[in-house]
Amino acid sequence: MTVESTAARDEARRSSGKRTSAKTATTAAASKSPAKKSPARSAAKPAAKTAKPAARTAKKSAAKTAAKPAAKSAARSAKAPAAGTTTRNAAATAGGRQDEPQLVQLLTPEGERLTHPEYEIDLSAEELRGLYRDMVLTRRFDAEATSLQRQGELGLWASLLGQEAAQIGSGRALREDDYVFPTYREHGVAWCRGVDPANLLGMFRGVNNGGWDPNTNNFQLYTIVIGSQALHATGYAMGVAKDGADAAVIAYFGDGASSQGDVAEAFTFSAVYNAPVVFFCQNNQWAISEPTEKQSRVPIYQRAQGFGFPGVRVDGNDVLACLAVTRAALAHARSGQGPMLVEAFTYRMGAHTTSDDPTRYRADDERASWESKDPILRVRRYLESEGLADEAFFSALEEESEQLGLSVREKIRTMPDPDTMAIFENIYADGHALVDEERAQFAAYMASFEDSAHQEVN
What we know:
alpha/beta, two-stranded antiparallel sheet, 15 helices
């Protein structure tokens, strides 16, 4: 049935109902008008009197029946805000209303310093300038990588634009002996762990499978499979606990990955085995084109309760709050109290990756509202208002960021192509007959191109 025919049928029903109501009203009016009594009217009067109470009873019953669902619906609406309302409004306040999730915030978008009863931090002017520098340089590197991809130097790039505070704050909370399991967007955390930015780009250029030794920086290779690193981190943390080491593990993932079974399994195992792991979820509001409301019916940090460990939501655009909360969560894990979930409430300002077009599913005014909460701008406002940095500092940092961009561009353009046969190395410790056969076949295949080129020249 078409939409038009359905609408016509509904209109016909409404019209029929109106005619019936009008007819009933006309009959009732006629019965009330003065007229000579007739035998028929006299006979109908007792029946009418009897019918009136019954009609009133039926009317009241119908009203009550109709009111109950409406009342229940209103109660549910008052008790639980509509999907999106809770998460969208929570970032606007430090404490939130009673029906909103609690949000840890130490620095407002206007650059005003706040305090928190559970999560507080005391940093020197040098440390504050260092956090600001980390975020500025990370954003500059990210912008350069995006440009390189657009110019054909990279196959793909996943931007972190807007998430600098969540990554730098949590990254600087780590100790040297802590271990990190990232996704594919943790460029700021990689910066904090001392990974060369050019090595990050090598993977997206297709010349290596990571480019760094995970054990050198205690920073695992990027994980493309969504959510799998949560299980890897849990297993590693269980090993740390068995070794009796005084260290913690942190696993990064996004709001979309929280829907993956691997993440749920990681929550279960980490809770049961009291693993010293921190799950750091960067809720940037969009899992590619799916909003957070399609990932969870409750705020993500509250899901930890069902697995038996604590969770906390932090303003992901506040580098001070992210540092304080992550530092406390890591201390919680190291002290033998088990896992903890941190939800950094932030926003992905750019596309999911350079192959994505966010304008197809995201409104411009939504991004505009989050631009006013920019993580870098709020720190600069604080530094300026408190006299903790002068213009010379900002000018020197601007120059440093430009030099970083030029350096990254030069390294990428001069990066050598890998040995095509290297893919067969380090698969088995003692070699394998099948790998040897595949290596020979691939070598013959590559040689065929050289033979063709030689024949064309001759």
